[in-house]
Amino acid sequence: MMDKYLIVLEKTETGFSAYSPDVWGCVATGETLETTLENMRSALVFHLQDNESIPQPRGIDAYLDALRESEGEEFYLTHIGVEVLK
Questions:
Q1: What is the pTM of this model?
Q2: How far apart are CA 2 and CA 83, in angstroms?
Q3: What is the mean pLDDT of the chain?
Q4: Distance, CA of 12 to CA of 31 (rounded, Å)
Q5: Most buried among 2, 19, 59, 71, by the most CB within 10 A?
């Protein structure tokens, strides 16, 4: 089964950073949006495979929280689908 996790991408001085409000401690960076998304997908898979309890993705409230909490002047919201086999 594939779950979709909210991803917040923020513009930095050297590229982009990303995190998921649903998966604490899971972050990624990259020089481009595409690279950052690829790195974030890999980080999510690695993080979720290593974690015994997989967090359930949240709904619209996560979007609203991410909008309020984002510190970047330029940021994007998206979802990444991740399938983790246990």
A1: 0.75
A2: 4
A3: 81
A4: 9
A5: 19
